[in-house]
Amino acid sequence: MDAPSPSRPTIRRLGRTTVDRIAAGEVVERPANALKELVENALDAGAAHIDVTLEAGGKRLLAVEDDGCGMDAEALALAVERHATSKIDDDHDLTDIRTLGFRGEALPSIGAVARLALTSRVPGSDCAFALTVEGGAVGAVKPAARAAGTRVEVRDLFFATPARLKFLRTDRAETQACVDGVKRLAMAHPGVAFTVRDGARLVFQAARRLETGEAALRARLAAVLGRQFTDNALDIVAERDGVRLGGLAGLPTYHRGNAQQQYLFVNGRPVKDRLLTGAVRAAYQDFLARDRHPVLALFLDLPAGEVDVNVHPAKAEVRFRDAGRVRGLIVSALRHALTAAGHRAADDTADRAVAAFARTPGAGSGAWTAAARPSAAQMGAAHAFQAPLPAAGQAPLPAAAGPGLGEAGAPTPYQPAHDLGGPSWPVGDPGADRGGEAAGAEGLGGAGAYGSLDPGLDAPSARAEAPGADDAALVRHPLGAARAQIHETYIVAQSGEGLVLVDQHAAHERLVYERMKRALAEGGVARQMLLLPEVVELDDGAGVAALVDRAAELAGFGLVVEPFGDGAVVVREVPALLGDTDVAGLVRTLADELVDLDEALALKDRLFHVCATMACHGSVRAGRRLTVAEMNALLREMEATPHSGQCNHGRPTYVSLDLDQIERLFSRR
Amino acid sequence: MKLTIERSSLLKSLGHVHSVVERRNTIPILSNVLLDAADGRLSLTATDLDLAIVEATEAHGIEPGATTVPAHTLYDIVRKLPDGAEVSLSLDDNQRLTIEAGRSSFKLACLPRDDFPSMTDGDLPHNFALPAVELKRLIDKTRFAISTEETRYYLNGIYLHVAQGADGPVLRAVATDGHRLAQADTVVPEGAAEMPGVIVPRKTVGEIRKLIDEFEGDVEVALSDTKIRFGFGQAVVTSKLIDGTFPDYSRVIPKGNEKELSLDCRAFANAVDRVSTISTDKSRAVKLSLGDDSITLSVTSPENGTATEELAAAYQAEAMDIGFNSRYLLDILGQVEGDTVAARLASPDAPTVVTDEADQAALYVLMPMRV
Fold it and tell me: What does the longest C-alpha to C-alpha distance in chain B come to?
């Protein structure tokens, strides 16, 4: 045996300061974490206005000022003690947490690594008190002056832990992280006004919304994520077994290159959860290409006992008691909303179209048209940092606007926002009241003009169609009456509100695809039993457990797996549609997806890919001449088919320009 | 190198070898065919490194020499020359091959002969002669079941081995894709009894199958653990074997199936083909409802509707419904030579054995579909 090493380490008890700094490392990793804790405190204090000031990315100064309930001298002294909090007490256990904070660690942790100054006055009291903590050394409570509420100043963050300071990113990046953190909290609290200043510069502002419920939420989301988003988003309202889901989900045609603009709030607390990522991927599957991501903000309210928030020092993760139910609720609510949206495509496609027209060089008026109408991108950017317009000017809200998400307590009977059975058309659209029929028949005069085109002018790639007898009725349809086919590829239709341009191949492909998927869903996936069952070795037991847990669901899609000893499954049946396929590869992908995302996407992907390939071959190609009856039939079928507004990759199948936009193009407005 | 050769014999030989050459190659020399003139013969060699084919043909006016030229280009040229033409080939000092026939003249860029990869046979200890008709039969009856899924590479060929048949040892060919299996037996030729079980790759199977049609007599087979050679007189195919273990197929051939069905093979195949017309998806499931001395085929398509057809059959066991992929059924029925096909079934979720009344040495196993 080896002799004991002469320098055998001895075990010592660490000093208080070191302990605090180690603990601080968990809670406060970068300025944005400290800021999040402080803003959450302000929200828990019932503030109506929260003002944040940053300097040097929060490294030099982080100040949070609120008009909340304040603290008296005694409370102030206790507040900087570790594990001291007003938010829970020992009688309550940790399963019923209703505040954002509860650990009693934020202020002492920040105090351990920075110079912390607190000034607070309880409303109605005649004196404010101040207290400073420097690198863990607590000063004395002194009288001070300030208005009701609390101001927390954090200077020289991490001065006590220089190593951490070295790992921070640039000031700009840290500022951005701080602003993002405040924005997340702002989304969930529309009743509170927020400002964020970087030095003297105002970088984020959200006015206090005095409306309640969905209207306030929509307005707040417009302020944070931009009007473009709220105009192209669907209301999500669903409730199941005491779990309530609200918020907005972007249309599939309004997508982004990354998944960063996907927000989930659990009981008003912003969280990052793989459950959301998986559920969103599942719900938007086959509306979007794999590398495109929808934008959404979802608010989940559930009884405090159903969720454990005490799993992460910074409370960025939560654990659900019944994760499967929550995921099911999110997927089905998103699916229903997307189905109800029918063929609706994001109207920024129209903006883009108009912008493209306006930019056309050689039009003579290009310069001033562009100036009169900023591009969609400019407008989006402008909206993102502005207070929203009054809610009255926004899209009509569903009748069943739920309660404000900040006030989860108020019970409201659940009503579906949409008729989920099929596509729904916005009834009472402003355009319909504008005498759309008259406009269609006479006001535009477009029909006549097209109809009387000299045949000699009829270019080979465009055909004009004379309106039929039932034209007035056709124009009333949302996608209108087909007027012409141009380049044997696009259908031009006249609707009550304007002009619709349809990509015939993309549209028909989607219709055939939807029909095939429906057949698949109705007829079930035929399963080919395997003569040689395939044993698939998986590296980890988690994959096997996940596959076996979801075996029933997989069987519904034609894949029958059973556990096979340690770390392996045996595949007994495969979807006949896939033919002679790489079963082992498919099963491994599925196991990874189930472990990472809790969703089996690959199987449906493969099945739908077969459908999509067949749909592509079985649909009307670009370049095929269509008669007016065929074109009208295509438009009517698009109206009747869910999800027909985008092709399988999230590209729009049609663009709709309303008369306003056309008139603006010609400077008539 | 210089020689003159009749167009038709050059075309025939090129036709045999050029299909080995892949259309797209990352190694330029693999696009070429090796021409080697010596001893009154022109021999042509093509390879894809896994498979090589050498064919010799009569030529005259030979000055010995060798070179390589693009195989598909040479084939296309010779194909378009007039029938009955005498083609003369000559290699000049600039490494260009001149091809002349009548008033046509072509000059092709060549690559040196030494760069051409040679496929060494190595030691092939097991030698036997197999009648061409038997080899043809073994291939035809099993080839359709070869898997195309490359992750299960060991199923991408025909497993040729000596097995214990009902009446002693047999030379057996087996192929399966995991959904169905096909097996065909023949007598063990002299010299084959000790051969190891080998998996002959799909591409090799295809190439030798083409050569069999123009050949009569015995095919000289020589093989080791890693290579196999088929000699068809003037043409010789050498191929690597698939380095893998073929699954123990005998376990999946059910022994205890007791429900016996037999019916007219052509009528059955035509009926399956007819009812599956209605199926629109790729799975093409057909349901067989077996009753007393009758069988009803039905296909349901959610889009199109339904199709049913009733056939007379000999069936005495209890009534049963079972589903199959119609394409798999047709593949098997297409190989049945006799008028009557027999099937032994157990249950709708167990494999079914199909046999041919006219060829008891062939057997097919088909796994049902759940419909």
Answer: 81
Interfacial residues of A (vs B; Cβ cutoff 8 Å): 515-516, 518-520, 522-523, 526-532, 534, 573, 575-577, 579-585, 610, 614
Specify the residue for token string 């008539």. Answer: A668
Given the cut 0.90, state whether the ipTM is greater than it. Answer: no
A213-341: what fold?
Ribosomal Protein S5; domain 2 (3.30.230)
Tokens 């809670």 correspond to A27
Same domain, B263 and B321: yes
SS3 content of chain A, % helix, strand, coil (to 5): 40, 20, 40
- Residue count (chain A): 669
Instruction: Report the run of H or E that residue A197 belongs to, with start and end.
Output: strand A193-198
For domain A16-206, the CATH superfamily is Histidine kinase-like ATPase, C-terminal domain (3.30.565.10)
Task: Judge: A577–B281 Cβ closer than 8 Å, yes or no.
Answer: yes
Cβ-defined contact of A519 to B280 (cutoff 8 Å) = yes
- Taking the C-alpha atoms of residue B249 and residue B241, their distance in angstroms, rounded to an integer, is 19
Please write the tens of the pLDDT for every residue from A595-634: 877 777 778 777 787 777 777 777 887 788 888 888 888 8
* Domain of residue B159, CATH code: 3.10.150.10
Backbone angles phi, psi at A357, to 5 degrees: -60, -45
Nearest-by-Cβ selection for A576 from B325, B349, B365: B325
Q: Could you tell me the two tokens for B178?
A: 């995991």
Kindly indicate the confidence band of residue A411, based on its pLDDT and cuts at 50, 70 and 90: very low
Q: CATH homologous superfamily for A462-669? A: MutL, C-terminal domain, dimerisation subdomain (3.30.1540.20)
User: How many domains in chain B?
Assistant: 3
Is it the case that residue A545 has pLDDT exceeding 80?
Answer: yes
Q: Which of A516, A522, A576 faces B283 most closely, judged by CB atoms?
A: A576
- Listed residues B54, B87, B115: the one ending a domain: B115
Site of tokens 């009743």: A191
Closest chain A C-alpha to B346 CA, distance in angstroms: 14
Closest CA to A578 of B281, B21, B194: B281
A353-389 pLDDT, tens per residue?
777 666 544 433 333 333 334 444 444 444 444 434 3
Nearest by CB: A527 against B150, B365, B370 = B370
Q: From B203, B196, B212, B209, select the one nearest B160 (Cα to Cα).
A: B196
Angstrom distance (rounded) from CA A73 to CA A568:
63
Q: If we measure between CA atoms, which residue out of B44, B91, B87 comes closest to residue B64?
A: B91
Q: Give CA angle at A393 (A390, A398), nearest 5°.
A: 105
Closest CA to A228 of A250, A208, A212, A213: A250
- Residue B263 domain flag: yes
Q: What is the mean pLDDT of chain B?
A: 92
Judging contacts by C-beta atoms under 8 Å, the chain B residues touching residue A584 are 151
Question: Are the beta carbons of B20 and B235 closer than 8 angstroms?
Answer: no
* pLDDT for position B45: 95
Nearest CA-CA distance, residue B301 and chain A, Å: 8
Q: Is the residue at B121 inside a domain?
A: no
Q: Which of A522, A531, A575 sits opposite B302 (nearest CB)?
A: A522
Q: Kindly state the tokens that stand for A260.
A: 């960063």
Please report, for residues A368, A495, A509, A612, the alpha-carbon distance to residue A506 in angstroms, rounded to integers and kept in the order given: 34, 20, 5, 11
Please name the residues in contact with A452: beta carbons below 8 A apart, sequence gap of 6 or more.
none
Q: Would you say A115 and A125 are in contact if contact means Cβ atoms under 8 Å apart?
A: no
